[in-house]
Amino acid sequence: AGWYMDKDLNITTKKPSDNYMYYNNGVLTLKNFSRWVTTSRIISSTGDLTINLEGKNTFASQDYYAIFAEGKLTIQGSGTLYIDGTDCCAIRSNGDMVIEADITVDVTNDAAMSVGGNLSLDANLISTSSTGNAINCKGNFSALGGSAKLTGKGTNYPALYVNNELRNYDCDIDVESVYTAVSIGYGSLRHYGGFFTASSSASHGLYAYEKVYIQAGFVRIEGALDGIRANTVQVHSGELRVSSKNTASDSTYRAVRVYSNNTTYFDVRDHLYQSAGTGSNAASTGTLKVANLADYDYLSGGQDRYPGNSSLRRSVSGIRQHQPHIYQALRRLRLL
Fold it and tell me: Do 235 and 265 contact (CB within 8 A), yes or no?
């Protein structure tokens, strides 16, 4: 048998009618439970912990983690959790983290969420930090479904930092940041489906140490400086829209920058829309090429720099410009 904690923090074996925590055999259930703490962690585990959410749950924490697990942390259930953190990381696990329930995190003066291992998301997540990362993941981030709205308001940390692989299977991910929106320290972005947007108002849209690989779905990257910085960019299917907001007087930054040696390439097999202010387009300090462009591409200024069917490209361009309603209908039917 487990134990209950009611809204007045009394521990009992009798189940309250509402507003309680219930712990039994490694699972902590929260039902319409609210707690504000400035002197300690609200929830802390020395090992693995599963939190089951029922109803609407609200935490406010200052100077201490709201939720901490030394091992693996799983958050699941049909309920929701809102955490307001000040001068503290709201949720931290030293092991893996699995999110299967809707969570909103809003943190001032620290990272919002920190994951020591791998992160798995199959729910709706909103995470905001005023100075640090909305998410800092030391392992792989697998977005299986649901949505993620990640916002970084600080000038020194990316909104989303993933040390290894960022894999989107069928999630709607939207990242906004003043600093670099998404930074992948030693791995790749692998996009297998869903939607992925990343926008930076003052820095780069996406940095990937290795590869940006798009198998399906829609990816849009906007950077105030470079749009994408990566070793390799491949679009095998789906759609990539990428832009840099630099001006004509500054040719330093590009929509897409691949930056390694001659084995690096920029490979587009489906749709590419690319713009880079009026002064620059895609560039590379290594080798930049486009191969097997199946349909068409669009570059700001009407430049035709890539191989492909030019007559098809001109036809599509005319429909897009002069008959946008037909163009959109064809796009919805996946005929373009």
Answer: no
Which residue type occupies 170? D
Mean pLDDT of 121-144: 96
Which tokens hold the place of 77? 């259930």
pLDDT in tens, 17-32: 999 999 999 999 999 9
**Could you give the C-alpha distances from 154 to 25, 185, 204, 290, in angstroms and in order?**
40, 19, 14, 36
Between β-strands 97-108 and 73-86, what pairing exists: parallel, antiparallel or unpaired? parallel
- Report phi then psi at 187, rounded to 5: -135, -145
Residues 6+ apart with CB under 8 A from 110: 85, 87, 88, 89, 129, 131, 132
Dihedral sign for Cα atoms in the order 268, 185, 226, 231? negative
pLDDT score of 330 more than 80: no
Q: What is the pTM of this model?
A: 0.81
Query: Do residues 72 and 50 make contact, with C-beta atoms less than 8 angstroms apart?
Result: no
